[in-house]
Amino acid sequence: MNKKIAVINGDGIGPEVTRQAIKVLDAIAAQFNHEFAYTYCLMGADAIDKTGSPLPDETIEICLNNDAILFGAIGHPKYDNDPTAKVRPEQGLLKLRKSLQLYANIRPIITYPELYHLSPLKPSHLEHIDFVIFRELTAGTYYGEKGLSEDGNTAFDKSIYTRQEIERVTQRAFEYAQNRRKKLTLVDKSNVLETSRLWRKVVQEAAMEYSDVAVNYMYVDNAALQLILNPKQFDVILIENGFGDIISHEASVFNGSLGFAPSASVGTSNAMFSPIHGSYPQAAGKDIANPVGSILAAAMLLDYLELGKEAALVREAVNWTLAHGFVTKDIDPINFYFTSTIGELVTDYVSGKIPDGINKGNIELRKSTII
Ligand code: IPM
Ligand code: MG
Question: Which of these three, 211, 231, 255, is where a domain ends?
């Protein structure tokens, strides 16, 4: 199979984690006789530095003309600390999501027994966690009218949702739930917000069509609490954009690090895959960032291209590295392996060089220890 993949490295650790995902994709291509052609394009602070724009038109063109998009991370401290900046890296990502109508952001959350000891939760809370967050991605406060008064003392961000915007992501979430444990939880704040009441109405209507899916409704403040108290109750969580950003980050640390969580942002004819973490500028260029989120995003990309066997092999390889204690510094600050080493181990596994051909001595040499 020949596929064209647009690659957006982005900022901070974006390039180095994406490099590992591409190594893995290349190994998959070699193993299964596929050809993946990559076209690199700019977005974020990197694009502002090089072109003045956080999302050059060329990037949109390239993304539209490829079969899938692999994206690293975005953001730079020089903008974070300057609230008056007119151009910001994040604007590039928001514009790309809108331009390609990537309205459903899918964030699967699972836990790994090997990492239970690093979790902020007790192991008894972590068993059997397996749910998926469906975050609406192209509307809400992120895209509503914004304003700042002339004296600079009053600001607003409107949250706007149309029925159609809610319906399309709702439909997708229900279809997803049908292929899982058939449970969907709408998370909202309908006791206060008008937009949430429209969400409830649309979801109640959809629930009648998908009668095999059990639906329940939960206020977002309660959901934040339930995620800690009893996370295994969830199967598919459907949630609006802004709340979804927060809840998905909360859910992603069950494994002790944000670095493991992948995501897919899908529309009708395009899809982008990325880790959910940010650009982590403090780690940029040091070869210490966790590449697993990006590698698992590549697995989601393979699923999207209907290469299910290939995707499963990538996940098996990731499980193998974790089971053997090959983890980055965010997981083990004392005995850690480098970003590139984790990428090579996953690649070697995919290529069939493990376990027989593994040279433990060489791996140990690429291990860092502060003792
Ligand atoms: C995410 C990120 C983005 C968001 C930022 C970088 C704009 O936090 O994808 O979770 O808030 O959507
Ligand atoms: Mg976020």
Answer: 255
Give the predicted TM-score (pTM) of the model: 0.96
Give residue 118's pLDDT: 87
Specify the ligand 1 atom closest to the Cα of 105: 9
Range of the domain at 368: 1-103+257-371
For the Cβ of 74 lying below 6 angstroms from any atom of ligand 1, the answer is yes
Q: Which atom of ligand 1 is nearest to the CA of 274?
A: 9
90 lines ligand 1 (CB under 6 A): yes
Residue owning the nearest CA to atom 11 of ligand 1: 245
Ligand 2 centroid, distance to 246 Cα (angstroms): 7
Output the CA 241–ligand 2 centroid distance in Å: 10
**Mean pLDDT, 10 residues at a time, over the chain (371 residues)?**
97 98 98 98 97 98 98 95 90 98 98 91 93 98 97 98 98 98 98 98 98 98 97 98 96 92 97 97 97 98 98 97 94 93 97 77 71 53
Is the beta carbon of 276 within 6 A of some atom in ligand 1? yes
- The response to whether residue 177 sits with its C-beta less than 6 Å from ligand 1 reads no
HEC states along the chain? Answer: CEEEEEEEEECCCHHHHHHHHHHHHHHHHHHHCCEEEEEEECCCHHHHHHHCCCCCHHHHHHHHCCCEEEEEECCCHHHHCCCCCCCCHHHHHHHHHHHCCCCEEEEEEECCHHHHHHCCCCHHHHCCCEEEEEEECCCHHHCCCEEECCCCCCEEECCCCCHHHHHHHHHHHHHHHHCCCCEEEEEECCCCCHHHHHHHHHHHHHHHHCCCCEEEEEEHHHHHHHHHHCHHHCCEEEECHHHHHHHHHHHHHHHCCHHHCEEEEECCCCEEEEECCCCCHHHCCCCCCCCHHHHHHHHHHHHHCCCHHHHHHHHHHHHHHHHCCCCCCCCCCCEEECHHHHHHHHHHHHCCCCCCCCCHHHHHHCEEECC
Give the number of whichever ligand sits closest to the CA of residue 137: 1
Question: Relative to the alpha carbon of 97, which ligand is closest?
Answer: 1
CATH of the domain at 216: 3.40.718.10
Residue 110 lies in a domain: no
Q: 247: Cβ below 6 Å to ligand 1?
A: no
